[in-house]
Amino acid sequence: MTERSASAPDISPKDPNWWRQAVIYQIYPRSFADADGDGLGDIRGITHRLTHLSTLGVDALWLSPFYPSELADGGYDVADPRDVDPRLGTLDDFDAMVAEAHRLGLKVLVDIVPNHTSDQHVWFQEALRSGPGSAARDRYVFRDGRGAHGELPPSDWQSVFGGSAWRRVPDGQWYLHLFAPEQPDLDWDNEEVRADFRTTLRFWSDRGVDGFRIDVAHGLAKDLTEPLRDLGDDLQGEEALVTMADGSHPFYDRDEVHEIYRDWRKVLDAYTPPRMAVAEAWVPNHRRVLYARADELGQAFNFEYLKTGWSASELREVITVSLDTARAAGASATWVLSNHDVVRHASRLVLPEGTDADAWLLSGGRTPALDAARGLRRARAATLLMLALPGSSYVYQGEELGLPEVADLPPEVLQDPIWEQTGHVRKGRDGCRVPLPWTRTGPSYGFGPGAAWLPQPESFASYSVEAQEEAEGSTPELYRTALRLRRKLLGDESLTWADSAPGVLQFVRSGGWSCITNLSPEPVPLPPGELLLTSTPLENGHLGPDTTAWLGTTPQRAGT
């Protein structure tokens, strides 16, 4: 491999735009590493394992919530957004983790959860005590019910986790919870709410945090004009965001939400360098990029890419649209294949087209049965394709090990509230949150000294960091090589599509290097160029099915 591209962007601490083409590693703290042996991952566990990330070659880590929480929704029910859950450590532990990350050259992002709090938050407990009409209730969305005695919910709005989005309290009023009942929604028309989150952004920025991931970024602004608008059966759930993709939805993706983020940008820009932010907004592409404007958050997750099937034509279309819309907003594109909310892509990419993922999980991953080897092959090819694209790549913990979804968790161990709230119709997201394996042996394969909060399958021994550390061609080695090479190859944020055979994707990046992915069922010849890296070895000099290669500009070819 050769040193390349003197024009590569500066991703050192002095560059305020380091995030535009960074690789950011998502840590789900309760499942990363357990230092104290209580079965839950913790902050000291993260600190002890940071060398894994620096050796891997990522630029930053993003921590999912580590705040005090009753874990009604895996930590996203936040009781105090400016503290650490005692089970996970202390603020001193957090400060030590940030210091060690920075020593290793890693940036740190944390989750901000602004749509709702925990029902254990001091504000919500005060609201329950204070009663209807109080200033404490004005921080949340409390309403009288419908019907002769207020016995009916104020509207037909449905929770993301199933059932009504309203819960009645003993005095007869109802409060809104778009997620679990333990997650009451805040009212962002309330200036006290806005001021408190400005304080939270400053609190973590002052502790050295480099950026923020904004949970449910599209959910803050709501049309609470009386009478509240019913949606009807046809406009509940995610499909309504497509039908009402003009800012008219009563509680998602309203135009007023952007005023909030313009206000936040003033806070973030007051730091040197400015703190970055990325929106989690499950909205259509043309609406999502609004959150990524320079005077708002700057980036937004690209879920169209995550949801695209293993199809050359579909991937080319979503990549083209994503780059065009990001460029129009002045943002860099984002790419993600897995996270804490979706089936891991080593399994998802081999589910037959049209498979209901919820039904597959309910079957314990048996209907249909998946080809694990083919899944890993596709996952590796998809990773090299993603890392070759201009913009930021977000990597979910364990994907560098090739971990598949743990689809056969028994019902009695499930923690995700989706399982209970849907009446056992949807199994939930626990299968992608199973704690990581670090060693071949031990009660939790090195995750901690004892058992883990979710059981790990025996197969995790062979996926462990220890088992793959010295294995030639292992998935961790592929990530390390790709990330090291990517850093040398990076140029501007453009690509040019090249002509290719059906089922094949090829594009050229600035500097002349190229990426080619074979999504067809047959091997294909490689175009001219120096072979820099392949996701799996060549087949008689050809690129096999489900394989990606990176090519340099010189005609000489390296070995596999």
Automatic annotation (TrEMBL):
Q: Which residues form the Glycosyl hydrolase family 13 catalytic domain?
A: 26-433
* Superkingdom assignment: Bacteria
Which keywords does this chain's UniProt record carry? Glycoprotein, Hydrolase
Which Gene Ontology terms describe the biological processes this protein takes part in? oligosaccharide catabolic process
Question: Which InterPro entries has this protein been placed in?
Answer: GH, GH13_cat_dom, O16G_dom_2
**Does the keyword Hydrolase feature in the UniProt annotation?**
yes
Q: Which GO terms describe its molecular function?
A: alpha-amylase activity
Recorded family membership: Belongs to the glycosyl hydrolase 13 family.
Q: What is this protein called?
A: Glycoside hydrolase family 13 protein
